[in-house]
Please model this.
Amino acid sequence: MRRQRGITLIGWLFLLTPMAICLYAGIRLVPVYLNYLKVERTLQTLTTQFKGGGASEYAIATSISRHFEIDSVSYPTLQDVDITRVRGGWRVVAAYYDYAPLFAGITLRVAFDKSVLVHNSE
Model:
């Protein structure tokens, strides 16, 4: 009697379905993470842009607004970025949630939190 080896079609379906769902979720999350990388780059640019001083809340907000406009960042907005005075400079925090629709009524929610210190040498 010969023994059958390998996997059946039903077995392949059970094996590939979870992997396909994970791949699809990854594809849906790519734009969310690309947007976060733009926000992160904007905040990192602040540290070099104001390295020599001249940092004020208005100057920082204007710089963020310009970078968001250039990079086409629609979310978070400037109102979602917190600019706080700390000793020796400013703390700029972009803490927000972003969403990626998966399918039907299922949405993936991703939390982002980026903080930088902008030193003021005045």
